[in-house]
Amino acid sequence: LDSRLPLVIFLHALTPAAARDEFQEELVIRPLHSGDIYASFQFRTLWDTDFLQEGQKVSHYRLFPKSLGQVLSKFSVRELHISFSQGFWRTMQWGQPFIPSPPGAELWVWFHDTVSDVDGNWKELTNVLSGIFCASLNFIDLTNTVQPSASFKPLGLGNATDHRFLRYATLPREIVCTENLTPWKKLLPCGSKAGLAVLMKSEKLFHSSFHSQAVHIRPICQDEQCSSKAWELRQTLNVVFDLHTSGQGKKEWSLFKMFSRTLTEACPLASSSKVYVDITDNPELFELSPATPLLGQAVVLGDRRTYSVYDLSRAETFGQLRSFNLLLRDMLRPLLHAERYVAGFGLQTGEIHTVIYNNHPYRAFPVLLMDSVPWYLQLYIHTLTVTSKSRDNKPSYIHYQPAKDRHRPHLLEMLIQLPPHSMTEVTVQFERALLKWTEYTPDPNHGFYVGSSVVSALVPSMVAMRTNFTQDQPLFSSFVPVKEESSYFVRVYTEPLLVNLPTPDFSMPYNVICLTCTVVAVGYGSFYNLLTRTFQVDEPSPPLSKRLANLIRRIRGVPLLT
Amino acid sequence: IFWFNYRHVANTLSVYRSVKRLGIPDSHIVLMLADDMACNYRNPKPATVFSHKNMELNVYGDDVEVDYRGYEVTVENFLRVLTGRLPPSTPRSKRLLSDDRSNILIYLTGHGGNGFLKFQDSEEISNMELADAFEQMWQKRRYNELLFIIDTCQGASMYERFYSPNLMALASSQVGEDSLSVSHTFFTCLFQFKVCPQSQCVSTPGHRTDLFQRDPGSVLITDFFGSVRKVEITKDTINLTSPVEPPIKRSGSGDIQIESLTYVDQLPVAEIIHQKPKQKDWHPPDGFILGLWTLILLVFFQTYGIKHLKHIF
Q1: Whole-angstrom Cα distance, residue A263 to residue A16?
Q2: Does residue B54 carry a pLDDT above 80?
Q3: CA-based R_g, chain A, Å
Q4: CB contact set of A284 (below 8 Å; sequence gap of 6+)
Q5: Mean pLDDT, rounded, for A8-22
Q6: Which of B87, B234, B239 comes nearest A7 by C-beta?
């Protein structure tokens, strides 16, 4: 007889009308021109509730994670964007990612306008998030936080855009590893037990050219009429698998090869669970099995692409995705691309060069460049030059906030018009500061990191974009709200810089003490001895026989022997 | 970072795994790793750390939670965790929330010497500091019994100075000996309470039990390494109450003006160009400016004398 644990639970079936939250998951696979393959996971939880309602605390959490909900209500957060990335996204070889992110950790938050002490809320928020994501976000403080004046407008609903409630910080040195992925997976309704999240195994995900996981929370329109708000939590994970390290040099990819797992079921709590494969480039020449009759089209990043759609909520989809052979032709060259490097020699001065490429053949468009440089690289703004096609290009808007030593970093925002088919170079000279000896990290000769620059632009699109939102639009094309049909918004991040600061020799105090003490001891000591020492003749102690004889003589009263 | 410190990370993770396997959850473990070996670019197998060169067991695993990593592992943070004197905004996962009925296990490994342990290649913790920290913990009633294991060169010197009650200490090497990080073997020694022969271990393990109040022979290993969760098994059925219905929002029919909600323009070029400069708050003059003006005024009055002021005014 088996003794089962009869712990029976009655579940009240929720009718669709009463359900206030829903969950969707999708995976997009895009083969890249260089033979690598790009996989992008997006998980979205939509919840029709109001965290910031007065006097009404939200107490019943179903799909939305409780840890994040409490953070939102406690700190009156309007929008939260946090991303952790390892590796650098190579725009020229891979195109544009669906959700861009800089290397390291990046956090930007819009607070509600009812907050009175934004800096205090920001400090506590970073500490709480460092506990949730097991990351060193507590190193974010006033010395690396900036308040952009024009970049990073809210991606969610809302009219008020007072930039006093925006904070942006980046930690380019932050490492991403399994301990950051584990709590991220715990935020999903199905965890990593069912649905698309079973594919996320750290041994495969971190053995890649690029890995980025992010959490984006914002209020969005609940339906097409946009009469009320709903909260959207998007968790995205972008990974690019390298042809040679993960693919063993063969351009044959399968889910098992990429993730060492296959999909067995959709998440039961998800209302939609889909896998999209980009087949725009040469649909006849590759074999995609199992075949699917479902095709979808979407306009994303200014290009119309065709996708094969696998609906995981239908049972007949299951079988496994076996290997598919792909032949690729040249895809659309990205129109906007940026690079950054440090020029100069020595440890005193240097020059930061930011190069922005506009590859459109005949259209010019404006870009907003935001640079946040730490205080120990002292920028000389009078040496700032912006040149396009070897001619001076004056920006139409410049916002510069100088740094305050140990308090605030530099913030430079410029709106530059890029002429068509050109390269624009922004240069500024700087001087390196000498830090106090306690401010150096344990490994100062590695160098100090400078966060990526952010280039935001409205790039003219080849294809008309849709401006209204519909519910059945795939997630990857509905992240950024579209305001006009002829251009799409894109954000490009440059490389972070690694700069050497003049480093003192930390063993010098010890050396100096040793040398000085030795010199003093040997030099002064022997000199003092020479001056003050006197010599006396000392008789050696007489042998035992003589001492005995002296003793007897003393008794007798006779003079002693010498 | 130096790659030869890989074995220290592997040792710490082996202890972490054993402790988790014996029942202690992550919320009761504070894990501090000073170097990142698993996701370092030098690691040929990312996201893995192996404790043996035949690579059979990945001690990093899939569900590790590191609480303090990289530059956060400092002597100050370690002592603050022990004594509980952390800033109020520290999250719970980074705190040691123990009381006077908790048994604590502390495992330290790294490079050390006679009386100190190295942190991050740039600072040291001395045995006196450690002893004082434990005394603070005893006075604040932060532990019931404490087991201190140290795996470094000359590790036995670290527990020489302890003076608080209910402490038991184990070290992998005596003063004057180097420990070649044979922690795996040391571990089996520990579990079987055998003395490791000199030929295998190269160093002699040491221990200190004089401050311990109970008889060490009667202490179970699982008092420190594992924990038993309280589980109640019932045979009755339990009815879960119906889900809490959130209050129905009153639909604004005429009274409340519903403003149309829209998304913000991501790059409003015209608006940006014509943005008015922010009103800078007026700050009183800084110390330097005040000092400079005071100096100028002093020199002026000194030279010309105060009685000449009436000619100016």
Answers
A1: 27
A2: no
A3: 34
A4: none
A5: 46
A6: B234
* Average pLDDT score over residue span A412-436: 93
The answer for A 112-151 residues in CB contact with B (under 8 A) is 123-124, 127-128, 130-132, 134, 136, 138-139, 149-150
Nearest to A177 among B38, B235, B240 (CB): B38
- Residue A403 CA to residue A157 CA, distance in Å, equals 32
Distance CA A320, CA A264 (A): 8
CA distances from B48 to A211, B42, B43, B57 (A): 16, 12, 8, 9
Residues 47-66 in B contacting A (C-alpha not used; CB under 8 Å): 47-48, 58, 60-66
Q: Give how far Cα B289 sits from Cα of B286, B292, B293, B294, Å.
A: 6, 5, 6, 9
- Cβ–Cβ gap B66/A226 under 8 Å: no
Mean pLDDT (whole number) for A53-71: 78
Spatial distance between the Cα atoms of B61 and B64, rounded to a whole number of angstroms: 6
Minimum Cα–Cα distance from B268: chain A residue: A150
Q: Chain B partners of A18 at a C-beta cutoff of 8 Å?
A: 245
Half-sphere exposure in the Cβ direction for B253 (13 Å, CA): 3
A215-264 pLDDT, tens digit per residue, is 999 998 877 777 778 889 999 999 999 888 877 776 677 787 888 877 77
Query: In degrees rounded to 5, what are phi and psi of residue B295?
Result: -65, -45
Q: Band of the pLDDT at B176, cuts 50, 70, 90?
A: low
Q: Position A132: which residue type?
A: I
Q: Is residue A374 predicted with pLDDT exceeding 60?
A: yes
Structure tokens at A68: 């994040």
B282 interfacial to chain A (CB closer than 8 Å):
no
Q: Which residues contact A12 (CB under 8 A, 6 or more apart)?
A: B240, B242, B243
CB A238 within 8 A of CB A103: no
Q: Which band of pLDDT confidence, cut at 50, 70 and 90, is reported for residue A7?
A: very low
Comparing C-alpha atoms, which of A73, A80, A66 is closest to residue A110? A80
Predicted-complex ipTM score = 0.71
Phi, psi of B93 (to 5 degrees): -70, -15
Q: Are residues B9 and B35 in contact, defined by beta-carbon separation less than 8 angstroms?
A: yes
pLDDT of residue B279: 62
- Identify the band that residue B205 occupies on the pLDDT scale cut at 50, 70 and 90: low
Contact A429, A380 (CB under 8 A): yes
Q: Is-contact A352 A342, C-beta < 8 A? A: yes
- The per-residue pLDDT for range A100-125, each reduced to its tens digit, is 999 999 999 999 988 899 999 999 99
Name every residue whose Cβ is closer than 8 Å to that of residue B261 and which is 6 or more positions away in sequence.
A157, A158, A221, A226, A227, A228, A229
**Residues of chain A contacting residue B1, judged by C-beta atoms under 8 Å apart:** 443
Q: How confident is the model at residue A334 (pLDDT cuts 50, 70, 90)?
A: confident
pLDDT digits 0-9 by tens, A313-325: 776 566 544 433 3
Taking the Cβ of residue B233 and every Cβ of chain A, the question of whether any pair is shorter than 8 Å is answered with yes
φ, ψ of residue A101 to 5 degrees: the values are -160, 150
**Residue A1 pLDDT class (50, 70, 90 cuts):** very low
pLDDT at A333: 65
Count CA atoms closer than 13 A to A175's CA, side-chain side: 21
The predicted model gives B127-145 an average pLDDT of: 92
Q: Which amino acid is at A194?
A: A
Q: What is the DSSP string of B231-258?
A: -----S-BPPPPPPPPPPPPP--SSS--
Parallel, antiparallel or unpaired: strands B103-109 and A145-146? unpaired
Q: What pLDDT does residue A52 have?
A: 63
Three-state SS at B164: coil
CA distance A178 to chain B (A): 6
